[in-house]
Amino acid sequence: MSRADTVDDHEGTPAPAPAPSPVLTPARTATWTWTFGLLRSELLTTFRRWRTLALLGVLAAVPILVGIAVKIETGDGSSGGPGGGGGGGGEGPAFISQVTNNGLFLVFTALAVTLPFFLPMAIGVIAGDSIAGEANAGTLRYLLVAPAGRTRLLLAKYATVMIFCLVATLVVALSALTVGALLFPLGDLTTISGTRIGFGDGLLRALLMALVVAASLTGVAALGLFVSTLTSSGIAAMATTVGLLITVQILDQIPQLHALQPYFFSHHWLSFADLMREPVYWDDLEKNLGLQALYAAVFGSAAWARFTTTDITA
């Protein structure tokens, strides 16, 4: 008898279908492809604009001007004394007394100089124009026809603003590092606490400071994005955002408002200077980053609620 005549009953039963593998379906793959394509398009559009390049140029020029001014002021060979420490949110401007001793301090000084006004203003311009500028140009409806939808478009806009925050901060830091290396000596440096650290450690702390400064602008970015959803005029959105930045910082200097000031997004901005202490003071840094996360959540949610429910007519 052949084997075919004695085949077991189970051999003719079809094997069970294998469990579906956790791979993306073609539709989901296409959606994510479009999302990343949208982000890439937003980045290219933003960084190709003359306005963006002009803002980055101004930010890069600030460390150059500060470095030249310090060099001229100390041209007789004198140098500032050791950097004094400050309390609370960090005393960034105290770094300027150490620039002539070590060019790396120009990075810290440039970040402290640009953070209160120049960097937030640049972020306010980019964020304020993100949605309102599209509406004013008549391209917003065209973008919403694509399958990414309003939520993904809003996330792409916010991600673009945050990437600009990082790029702008790094432009300031790199410009300051270059000018500091050209005009002043480099080497081991003295922290605010009076201890000595190596140049490599100082360079790492400079990078961490730049990252903290960029993270400190997340609240401003979310605020600007929310304002941008309230109007179809890019100029009005930019002006409103910058005006709010200036108003908050003025209020942060009024002694009678001391009870409210810890909740202003700008109150702990200079806490990045605490990274130059030994050991590092984390209290104000954590307060700053936590406050920025809160502002980003509140105004990001408000921007999403507004953008996903409003009628787009332009």
Strand and helix layout:
Elements: H1 26-48, H2 50-73, H3 105-114, H4 118-137, H5 140-145, H6 149-183, E1 189-190, E2 196-197, H7 199-215, H8 218-228, H9 234-251, H10 283-309
Antiparallel strand pairs: 1-2
Helix pairs in contact: 1-6, 2-3, 2-4, 2-6, 3-6, 4-6, 4-8, 4-9, 6-7, 6-8, 8-9, 8-10
Summarize this structure briefly.
By secondary structure, the chain is mainly α. The protein is built from ten helices and two strands. The chain has helices at residues 26-48, 50-73, 105-114, 118-137, 140-145, 149-183, 199-215, 218-228, 234-251, 283-309, and strands at residues 189-190, 196-197.
Q: Report the span from N to C terminus.
A: 82 Å
- Count of DSSP strands: 2
Q: What proportion of the residues form beta strands (DSSP E)?
A: under 5%
Name the structural class: mainly alpha
Q: Give the radius of gyration.
A: 26 Å
Sequence stretches where pLDDT stays below 50 over 5 or more residues? 1-11, 80-93
Oligomeric state as shown: single chain
**Major β-sheet annotation:** 2 strands, antiparallel
Strand order of the largest sheet: 1-2
Query: What is the helix content?
Result: 55-70%
Shape: globular
Mean pLDDT: 82
SSE run: HHHHHHEEHHHH
Our count of helices gives 10
Structure commentary:
The chain has 314 residues and is mainly alpha-helical. The chain is 61% helix and 1% strand. The protein is built from ten helices and two strands; from the N terminus they run H-H-H-H-H-H-E-E-H-H-H-H. It has helices at 26-48, 50-73, 105-114, 118-137, 140-145, 149-183, 199-215, 218-228, 234-251, 283-309; strands at residues 189-190, 196-197. It has a two-stranded antiparallel ribbon. It is globular and about 60 Å long. Residues 1-11 and 80-93 have low confidence and may be disordered.
